[in-house]
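QA checklist item 7 of 12: single-chain prediction sanity check.
[x] sequence parsed
[x] length recorded as 145
[x] structure emitted
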Amino acid sequence: MIILIKRSDNADSGRRPRVTIACERSEGEEDKMAIGRRSTEIKKYGCQFMLQGNQIGSKCQWELKVVCGTHNHLIDQFLEGHTYVGRLTPSQDAFMLNFSMINSLPLQILDVLKKEWLNTKAMLRHIYNARLKHRVVKRKGQSQM
């Protein structure tokens, strides 16, 4: 289960700071499969789990209110390959970029990455996506031809 900051306000307009925390699967509804369409997995289930926090008094005290404390989906047993948890950190991204520059294979990069950072949940597709992102940034402004 991943909990994300859905909305926040740092009180620039004179209001008290506040934050809304929700489940990562909070928006959207479960997709109904149409006949003849290929099977696809959807991650948003319209989960109602939500917490609201308001700053009270001094800057160190917060009041947390439970708007809805239940989830309408099963909790993930394993986070391996999860899109949010599996993202590369900036240090891992730089590490991967250095290995890519010396023409290492993505599988080799992933093996070394998992040995260096034991708690990483990245998978091979995260390496491919990060390499593609760097390639696109590198070629910014150039023609695709």
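[x] summary fact logged: The mean pLDDT is 79.
[ ] second reviewer sign-off
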